[in-house]
Amino acid sequence: MKFIKCGVNAILLSALSLLSAAGYRRYKILGSGFFRRLAVLLSLLCFFALSAALAIDAPLSQIPDDSALRRKLFEPWFTEIPSRVLARSAYLETLPGGERVEVRTELGINEFGIVLAREIAGGFPGWAQGSWVITRNTGNGRLTRARFFPRSDPYTYIQFRPLDENRGLLDVVAYDAYIAQSVIMPLNLERIITIPLQDTLDAANRQDILRYFEPHLENYANVRELISHIRQFLPKLSFADDGAINEDGSYVFISTLQPQTANPGLNCSGFAKWLIDGLLAPVTGKRLSISALKQPYGTRGSSFTAPYEASRDPFFGLDWIRNLAAAVNSTLKSPAFGVLDEIEVKESPFSQIILRSGRTSRISYSTGFLPDAGFDIKDLRALLFTLAINEPGTIYLGAVNNELPPKPRMRQYFHIAALFPYFDEHGTFHILVFESASETRFNSFIARYPNHYINLVRIPIENPPTSARQRVSHALRASSLPPLAGGGAAFESIAPASGFYIRSR
């Protein structure tokens, strides 16, 4: 997934201006759904486009405090009659440290928001780190919630809601998943929106959930480096149905192990093997066996599916990724990490998600992990975000599955992809998808499989222990792998600092 660089500042600032004071005044005058959709689109485009030019977000404790401004706005904006607030024009405030904040309103359905938008690259999109959105009911003017953006990311925020006269509720939302929900606060909503943020977070006493807003960017350096290497070699690879590279470096068909002749290439399974071979070859001096990867691994299926193992091979994709993950974890970490309980992702920190459709949304329960299925693909973005925070330096192989015909319908694992959740050098979160010898946009990937499930296994991308590094050096000095089929020189990429080794035709 490639994002727009920030070389054309004039275009970006013009787009951001649509989301600032003048833009929202035009929106209110026009009352048009078109402008709202345009504003949202431009906001998201700017989010990705600006990521390369922005400074890294500060730790939560170092975000410049704006509580004095919020107290100043309490009566004229937070409690004044809605019609009078909505009639106000947007304007700029300056914090004691020199940071600028745009104060404006946004009109929704039966609600309106008072936005305290921090400045970012000359614009005020409303999701820059430190921004607030205070929401009120349009009819009675009551405060309904307050959202704070702890990172420059429109998809992650801390939300506060009223509970009673003396207490409030805290939610932590990341990519439409509730990482924390309805945490009781000893402060009411009016108090929360007028005191320093740090005092509010201290009152919540939930330091465990705040880690989702402070990723350690250095922990993703190896993943970023591996991505760079893979992209270098993708143009040298091509797709071929049922295609893979065997232990000798020859292109063969997975089902028969017979050589490919014309237009050799890799399918989704073969590409996943190519990726893992690139990680393991420096340590082991050889590629993995295709026959071994096809063997059943762990518990799966039942007496119902057993008669169809030969004719329909319903668990091929699941067995394949489990065997790949077991090999990587056993080799790069230790045999104790190559067992199913270690390699398979089964935990999710959220139980509810927000489902959106047009301008409406509803809260739905997440199914979590289901044996012989994995996770609902609609939960995948939020799940990978939490995994990136909790397991930095890890990528994932996913096996897509669903109940498929012919009769009897049964769950079949029919597609494999490599998923790379990580933070770039600027702190922006990304999910890259590599499948079938190509790179795919994550949105396209999940849109392709509505109502499907995906089983995930862990692939560590981290510096190997000293003994492994020594084996890498020995393998490179003493034994090079056989050249790949098709003639010509093999392409090698070696990153000594991280042990990455990708070899392709």
| Count of spatially separate domains | 2
Using only C-alpha atoms, the radius of gyration works out to 26 Å
Global mean pLDDT: 83
Name the poorly predicted regions. 1-53, 463-505
- Number of beta-strand segments: 20
Output the strand order for the largest sheet. Answer: 1-2-3-4-5-6-7-8
Q: Give the overall silhouette.
A: elongated
Number of helices: 17
Could you give the distance between the termini?
23 Å
Could you state the oligomeric state of the chains shown? Answer: single chain
What level of helicity do the residues show?
25-40%
Features:
alpha+beta
Protein architecture, described:
By secondary structure, this protein is an alpha+beta fold. The protein has two domains: 160 residues, no CATH class; 288 residues, no CATH class. Helix content is 32%, strand content 25%. Strands 1-2-3-4-5-6-7-8 form an eight-stranded antiparallel sheet. The longest helix has 18 residues.
Structure in a nutshell:
It is built from 17 helices and 20 strands. With 505 residues, the protein is an alpha+beta fold.
Summarize the SSE layout with pairings.
Blueprint: H1 9-17, H2 21-30, H3 33-50, H4 67-79, H5 82-86, E1 91-94, E2 100-107, E3 111-118, E4 132-137, E5 143-148, E6 156-162, E7 168-174, E8 177-185, H6 189-192, H7 197-204, H8 207-210, H9 221-233, E9 243-245, E10 251-253, H10 268-284, H11 290-293, H12 309-312, H13 316-332, H14 340-343, E11 352-357, E12 360-365, E13 375-376, H15 380-390, E14 394-404, E15 410-423, E16 429-435, E17 438-440, H16 442-448, E18 453-460, H17 466-478, E19 491-495, E20 500-504
Antiparallel strand pairs: 1-2, 2-3, 3-4, 4-5, 5-6, 6-7, 7-8, 9-10, 11-12, 13-18, 14-15, 14-18, 15-16, 16-17, 19-20
Helix pairs in contact: 10-13, 10-17
